[in-house]
Amino acid sequence: MIDDDESVRVASSSLLRSLGWEVSLYASAETFLDADPLDGLACIITDLNMPGMSGLQLQQRLHELNLNVPVMFITAFASDAARRQALDGGAVCFLSKPVDGTAVADCLERIRQGFLKD
Amino acid sequence: METFQSAPRAVRHDTRIVSMLAAAIALAVFLIDALTPLDIAIAVLYVVVVLLIASTGNRTATVATAWGCVILTLVGFILSHDENVSGGALARCAVSLLAIGTTAVLSLRIQATTMQRKRMEAELQRQRDALKRSEAFLLDAQRLSLTGSIATRLPAGTMWWSDEAYRIFDYPRDMTPSIDAILARSHPDDIAIVRGAHEAALSSVRDIDVEHRLLLPDGTVKHVHYVAHRASSENDGGEYVGALMDVTETKLAQEALARSTAELAHVTRVTMLGELAASIAHEVTQPMAAIVTSGGAALRWLNRAQPDIAEAQQSIAQMVRDAKRASEVIARIRAMARKRDSQPATLEVTEIVGETIELVRRELARHRVDVRADLATPSPTVRCDRVQLQQVLINLMMNAAQAMSAVNGPRVLRVATRESDSDPGYAQIVVQDSGTGISDENARRLFDAFFTTKAEGMGMGLSICRSIIEAHGGRIWAESPDEGGARLLFVLPENERRDDEQ
């Protein structure tokens, strides 16, 4: 879970844990990329607009690193172009803040089922 | 003046008649003395001739007449007596000569005194004229400058007002001036000020300097400034001499200017908020989003087969924190957007600067600006309007961010607070960027109204900053640091210093 806003990070963490997931929090894309265990991840949830590397730049970087972890975007302000770019880049979900717990749960369920199919 | 001017001609006219009369009397006396055998001292009557001539005030003529009368007396004596002169006749002649001599001497002395008196009178008149002229000058000056004079004799409280003072208080000239008369004209809210000044005078304070309002019977409100000082230092009280200035026009102009400045500050503030809208919206939506998410999480923790109360509590606590944070942001924005008069308060510079950086942090991040704050602790305190000070800071920071938007290198915004080295007793705030800098040509006009280097700029930002800083007794200027970019600095008088002064 990557978001530059602490409140959003804490709230998301609680929601995801209540859904039964294990969560690691990062304040920026850079700190996430610097963190050790990039494998073994079920999903990356990221904000779109952040100081420094943006969500879309992160998505690009993950492609370059050949990390095919599903990416979910949660953002407050997004242009259609950004949304299209994210989904074209393989994003699983593109949600607008404030996000409904159910929407996140549904999205994560889709990811879980994708795992099970694999 | 009339009689004084026509006097010489009348005198000349009189002189001729008097001289003729004197000559006639002299002739008559001589004829009687010389030709009649009267055994009386007829020559004594020559004194009449001497007195008449003396009355014209001509010194030489008086002396000549006296000698003439002496000669005539002697000639008359010789003509009317042969060699057998009686002792009586000789005595009579001597008496006559003595009388003429004495009269002449006395007349001359009176003449001298009269001359002196006349000279003194003329001098007095000249001084009186000069006094009248200077009084006229003073009255004109008082009238033109709307300044009246008030003299107060203490402890009795007897007063003297100049014409202009009567006019300012709107009293008829025949009214007896007194402190009660002044109090009757004082604005009800300012009576304490007037009373205080009067009591200060009663307790022999050396200088009095107060400003207050008057409320005239027709409802007009006047602003007056009264300055007085003790003119004498007698133990039994003394006299205060003071000037009462009608400063209504100045005051109204000042108030109008302050109002315009406040309006303009408000308009530019709202414009500035408009420019910050995206960042502000983000500041509010973030906690809102967090609240929604936390709410969802809390519900899920509670809806579990085995409800996790501790987790739910944490989520709810988080919701409360975020809701507070959102409303704080809104309160700050509301404060900025509100239209209000300047409300000076004692502020910690460092605290305000820190708060303001938080307010624009997102906007700065959007411009990829790295903020480096160097804030002094303990903070210098200033007496300033919080919103206006924030407005100045936001303006300078936003300008800095915009100046760096075309820069490819590091975009560093340095904000510092400290005690001013160049202006002791002042707090200094520095906002420095690593942008394109200010050309010498622009530096001169930087703070002028309607001067802008931005395509869509109105050119009011820095002009308003200057108005705000100067209204708080400070100054603002720009420097071009050697390392490039621009450095905007301003100083505000420190609060402690002002307390010391009072």
UniProtKB/TrEMBL annotation, chain B:
GO terms for molecular function: ATP binding; identical protein binding; phosphorelay sensor kinase activity. Residues 110-137 form a coiled coil. InterPro entries: HATPase_C_sf (IPR036890), HATPase_dom (IPR003594), His_kinase_dom (IPR005467), HisK_dim/P_dom (IPR003661), HisK_dim/P_sf (IPR036097), PAS (IPR000014), PAS-assoc_C (IPR000700), PAS-like_dom_sf (IPR035965). Residues 208-259 form the PAC domain. The chain crosses the membrane at residues 20-53, 60-79, 85-110. CDD domains: HisKA, PAS. Pfam families: HATPase_c, HisKA, PAS_3. PANTHER family: PEROXIDE STRESS-ACTIVATED HISTIDINE KINASE MAK3, SENSOR HISTIDINE KINASE. This is histidine kinase.
